Amino acid sequence: LSLMSCISVGSLSAPVIEFLEEWGLESLEENAHSSTPCTKVFVNGVWMGVHRDPTNLVKTLKKLRRKDDINAEVSVVRDIRERELRLYTDAGRVCRPLFIVENQQLLMQKVHIENLNRAKEERAEEERKKAEGIEEPEDPDDPPPPRYEYQWENLIKDGVIELLDAEEEETVMICMTPEDLENSRLQAADIDPHENDTEADPSARLKAPTNAHTWTHCEIHPSMILGVCASI
């Protein structure tokens, strides 16, 4: 397994199926004699029906997943060539986290880092007081404020980090570092990001000569691709 990867524990498929029925999923009987090209929709390998607007359906599903309205481990895979949309809610899939990118900008902001640091400092202070045996007297009229909680799960619920399994990972564009996003923004503005590079640094990381400006995700760190025992 790669570093930071996790195994999906599985969730109910009923909420996903109910959503599909509300958003225009047509049964196989209704569409048996239709000449309009439709996309087949599968849930955990079972053909549930067809849909006439898969692009908007995929966008809506991903938006709901990032808002935590559907489980973060639900996988949304669209195969344009085969005209198939495959959704997975089952257990046992290997998922790994990635930063979400929109308009070539990370959705991860300083405020999220500050929230993590604040929660970490409060936990450390609480542990220090316990270790030193310091107990603050409790006033029933003025109870102490609850400890500030902001953890990894909050980043997923806030829609700045997304869990992708191996199959969905094949349908997205992942850059290695935020620097690649900056280069893409410069290239989109017809600016050469390497025009000021005087001489090549042999120890510098090789940059991808990308002409595409359609990144959808960014690695948390390039080394997270590797496993615990992997080496270069």
Automatic annotation (TrEMBL):
GO CC aspect terms: DNA-directed RNA polymerase complex
Basic and acidic residues: bias regions: 119-133
GO process terms (BP): DNA-templated transcription
Span of domain RNA polymerase Rpb2: 41-102, 152-222
EC number(s) from the headed UniProt entry: 2.7.7.6
GO terms, molecular function: DNA binding; DNA-directed RNA polymerase activity; ribonucleoside binding
Assigned keywords, A-Z: DNA-directed RNA polymerase, Nucleotidyltransferase, Transcription, Transferase
InterPro entries: DNA-dir_RNA_pol_su2 (IPR015712), RNA_pol_Rpb2_4 (IPR007646), RNA_pol_Rpb2_5 (IPR007647)
Coiled coil stretches, renumbered: none
Region (Disordered): 119-146
Protein family membership: Belongs to the RNA polymerase beta chain family.
Protein's name in the database: DNA-directed RNA polymerase
This protein's encoding gene: RPB2
